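Below is how a single chain appears once it has passed through the pipeline. First comes the sequence as given, then the structure the pipeline wrote out for it. We keep one example in the README because the format questions we get most often are answered faster by looking than by reading.
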Amino acid sequence: MLKLKGIAASQGISFAKAYVFVEPDLTVKEVKIEDVAAEIKRFEDAIEASKKLTIIKENALASLGADKAAVFEAHLLILDDPEFMGTVKTDIESKVINAEYAFKETSDMFISMFEAMDNDYMKERAADIRDVSKRILAHLLGVDLPNPSLIDEEVIVIAEDLTPSDTAQLNKKYVKGFATNIGGRTSHSAIMARSLEIPAIVGTKEV
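Resulting structure:
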């Protein structure tokens, strides 16, 4: 029997078949561009498209309550952050490069900055930036993100990580638990798992 060890994020025991949560390829390459204004407009359009969190927020409100759904207000604040988004636009202009690459460089810098902090709460905020970044990159690259709300049979979700958006869309009628490679007890996914009252193990490193 293969035994995996991780952090107990939400207590309980469940039995179901594994559902592997496959993320799309969001790899980006640096490309020199000709029309800077058009590239900035493309980036701004991706930001606006990423603000359409209404359905996810409504699901979170219904299943998790207003306090947990508030995380998406934080996501909207990130999308409106002038320092974060301004840095990306400056890079597009000064380096004459594609929006995807400029954005990935900036988001990685902010994620690393939060992960390096001593405070566990602040460290976990890197997950918020990662969540928002994934959404923007998907829009820029023209790829669809997986939709956990479409799961319609009893499963245990297996993933590298689950973002707050992913977890908010889990239907506990079908999702009997989840296990992820990364995350901690104070991560949004762990907190939401406890609210949904489904067992969850995070930080397994190799699930």
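Residues 23 and 124 are 20 Å apart (CA to CA).

See the next section for the split statistics.
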